[in-house]
Design brief:
Blueprint lengths: L1 H41 L10 E8 L7 E7 L4 E9 L3 H20 L10 H16 L6 E9 L4 E7 L5 E3 L14 E3 L3 E2 L13 E4 L5 E5 L1 H4 L11 H11 L5 H15 L9 E8 L1
Amino acid sequence: MLTSVAAQLALVIENSKLVGRVVEEERLRRELELAAEVQQRLFPSGAPQSGAFELAGYCQPARGVGGDYYDFLVFDGESYGVTVADVSGKGMSAAILMSTVQASLRTQAASGHILTRAEGSVAALVVALNRLLCRATGPSSYVTFFYMQLDERTRQVSYVNAGHNPPLLVRAAAPSGAGGDDSRCEKLRAGGPVIGLFENLTYEEGRLQLHSGDMVVAYTDGLTESLNVVEQEFGEAELCELLNEAAADLSADEILAEVVRRVRVWSAGAPQHDDLTLVVLKVK
């Protein structure tokens, strides 16, 4: 009888432990859903309306929450800011650092730091962000960061690339004397190292003159490194070819949708291993 009672008590105890695990897993699931909802609200609810530019953005985390970030900033009605960033790591820790980047950038914008049109103002913004992150995070955390500021009146762009995948500039027409469509796809490299690792860094500022039909596409490595079922990457060459095809006829929203569709077709059947983020700017 004692043996029978002991067996029953052991079963009760084991069931109790299992119930506790289920409750804990449900609590973690709800916390993750809440974190994902909060993070989603950090992204812009829509692209700003401009008389000179079309803008579109997209982000798909790999694990509910992630470390990719994009944002649109509107200044005096004639100036816009566009940023794309990728935080080191994945999951909750990356999401927390991403929110720090977002808050720091928005703080700089609210303080008027990047409203000026002075030479080097965009580079000064990235210097300030780098210092803030270095003081707020540990030595193993860093962020690849791209920021560009658009002037609606002149269609000029100032940008800094801090260790990020070089965004692609696709001209509406290839330069005279250039051969092949690939010559229309230029990489925006001017800038410097990633932000968040070393405090006393300087950054180079790049400048562009855009024309009607030109396009800038900024993305994170989760796009070009998307794998198919045989572990082949989507690749930058495939992206550039796609953009050359779409540059003339499609709007920014349509280009973004087509890129996302192509990547999903490519990776169908394979798990998403990294966050995927994309921003498209097209000149009207």
